[in-house]
């Protein structure tokens, strides 16, 4: 599954969802994890609803997005598009999160995570 991380330095989760200029994307499975690229956000719309929608569209292929902070309307919009937002600890290392996530995937993932893993198989709700 694809997982995005709001990061200013490509190493730690340290950005607010609405303020992040880019997201690091990783492909993660139980056995492998690899950096797959950056989502660089273009000019941010002035309207908050448009800004949230453009970020959701940029992250549409991701099942999870880790952020330092996120507002309620943005979190709800992500969930509606079957992207699960997760608040990370302050400046938590991306590699550490990836390792923990892989361990959870190998063990017994909770129902919400099992659904996220199957995201590509189901259409999003608009």
Taken in chain order, the helices and strands follow as: EEEEHEHEEHH
How helical, in percent, are the residues?
25-40%
Radius of gyration from the CA trace? 14 Å
Sequence stretches where pLDDT stays below 50 over 5 or more residues: none
Percent of residues in beta strands:
25-35%
Secondary structure tally: strands? 7
Distance between the termini: 21 Å
* Secondary structural class: alpha/beta
Mean pLDDT: 89
Spatial order of strands in the largest sheet: 4-3-1-5-6
Coarse shape: globular
Largest β-sheet summary: 5 strands, mixed
Q: Helix count?
A: 4
Keywords:
126 residues; alpha/beta; two-stranded antiparallel ribbon
Protein described:
There is one protein chain. The mean pLDDT is 89. The longest helix is centred in the last third of the chain and has 13 residues. The chain is of the alpha/beta class. The chain is built from 4 helices and 7 strands, in the order ββββαβαββαα. Helix 1 packs across helix 2. Helix content is 32%, strand content 25%. The strands form 2 sheets. A 5-stranded mixed β-sheet has the order 4-3-1-5-6, sandwiched between helices. Strand 5, helix 2 and strand 6 form a beta-alpha-beta unit.
Task: Describe, in short, the structure shown.
The protein is an alpha/beta fold.
Topology:
Elements: E1 2-6, E2 12-13, E3 22-28, E4 33-40, H1 48-58, E5 64-67, H2 72-80, E6 84-87, E7 92-93, H3 94-106, H4 111-117
Helix pairs in contact: 1-2
